[in-house]
C-alpha cells in the first residue's frame, strides 16, 4: 500500500507550494487508481512492448491564448473521440486570472464526477495548455495538481507498461508503455514557474495528459497487438480527420 512516505514519489515537498489548495489533506495514501470509472483493477502488464514513446514537440512557438479561447460554460462536458478538438493545437496561457481559477475548479469537478484522476483542457473543449490531476481520485483526498504550459525536461530511460483508460474513450483500457519518471517544468495557477520530478502514478498521469496537450491520444502509443485487442470496442481508431 502506498503510504504518506511513499507518496514522496510525487516530490511533494517540491510541489506543495504550487498545489491547487482546495484540499488540506496531505497525508492521504496515493492509491493505484484508475483513469476513469470502469477499470476495477490494473491488469498485469502485457507482453507486447514497443519502442519508447514518441516525444511531444517543443512548444516555444505556441500561440498565446486570447480571453475568448478560455471562455467556457459550466458545467463542463467531456469531449469524446473522434472529436477533432482532441487533435487541435493547444495555446499557451499567459493570463492567470479568476477565469482561469474558475476553469480549473470546473475541470476538477468534472474529473471527480467521471471518476478520472487526470484531465486536460482540450478534453473539456478548451484548446489551451492546462491540465489538472489528483492521483487519489477523490475530492478531499490526495493533492490537486494544476500544471499550466508544462514542458518535459527529461524522461527516464526506464519504461513501464500500465493499463490506461481515458475519459475521452469511455470503456477502453489498454497497456501503454511510457518512461517511468519525468522531470518537468510548468507554471502554477498563479503563474509562478516551478520544476519537479514525477515518478510512478503521477508521472504516468502527467504523461497521458501532456500528450493530450500535444494532440496525441493514448492509442497512438499502443502496439499493433494491443490496438488489435481493443479495436472491436473502438472502431475506427486512428481514422479520424
Ligand atoms: Zn486521456
From TrEMBL:
Its cofactor is Fe(2+). Gene3D superfamilies: Peptide deformylase. Keywords: Chloroplast, Hydrolase, Iron, Metal-binding, Plastid, Protein biosynthesis, Transit peptide. This is Peptide deformylase. Transmembrane segments: none annotated. It comes from the Eukaryota. The keyword Protein biosynthesis applies. Its EC number is 3.5.1.88. It is found in: Plastid, Chloroplast. NCBIfam families: pept_deformyl (TIGR00079), PRK00150.1-3 (NF001159). Removes the formyl group from the N-terminal Met of newly synthesized proteins. GO terms for biological process: translation. It catalyses: N-terminal N-formyl-L-methionyl-[peptide] + H2O = N-terminal L-methionyl-[peptide] + formate. It is an enzyme of class 3 (hydrolase).
Amino acid at each position: 500500500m502506498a503510504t504518506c512516505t511513499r507518496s514522496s514519489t510525487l516530490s511533494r515537498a517540491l510541489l506543495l507550494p504550487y498545489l491547487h489548495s482546495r484540499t488540506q489533506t496531505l497525508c492521504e495514501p496515493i492509491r493505484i487508481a484508475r483513469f476513469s470509472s470502469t477499470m476495477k483493477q490494473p491488469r498485469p502488464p502485457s507482453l507486447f512492448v514497443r519502442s519508447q514513446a514518441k516525444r511531444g514537440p517543443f512548444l516555444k512557438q505556441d500561440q498565446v491564448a486570447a480571453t475568448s479561447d478560455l471562455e467556457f460554460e459550466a458545467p463542463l462536458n467531456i469531449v469524446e473521440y473522434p472529436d477533432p478538438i482532441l487533435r487541435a493545437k493547444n495555446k499557451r496561457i499567459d493570463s492567470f486570472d479568476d477565469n482561469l481559477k474558475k476553469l480549473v475548479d470546473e475541470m476538477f469537478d468534472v474529473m471527480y464526477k467521471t471518476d478520472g484522476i487526470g484531465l486536460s483542457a482540450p478534453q473539456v473543449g478548451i484548446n489551451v495548455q492546462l491540465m489538472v490531476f489528483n492521483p487519489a481520485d477523490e475530492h478531499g483526498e490526495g493533492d490537486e495538481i494544476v500544471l499550466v504550459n508544462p514542458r518535459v525536461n527529461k524522461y527516464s530511460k526506464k519504461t513501464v507498461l500500465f493499463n490506461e483508460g481515458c475519459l475521452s474513450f469511455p470503456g477502453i483500457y489498454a497497456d501503454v508503455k511510457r518512461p517511468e519518471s519525468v522531470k518537468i517544468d510548468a507554471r502554477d495557477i498563479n503563474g509562478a514557474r516551478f520544476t519537479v520530478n514525477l515518478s510512478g502514478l503521477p508521472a504516468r498521469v502527467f504523461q497521458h495528459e501532456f500528450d493530450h496537450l500535444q494532440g496525441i491520444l493514448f492509442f497512438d502509443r499502443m502496439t499493433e497487438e494491443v490496438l488489435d485487442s481493443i479495436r472491436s470496442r473502438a472502431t475506427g481508431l486512428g481514422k479520424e480527420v
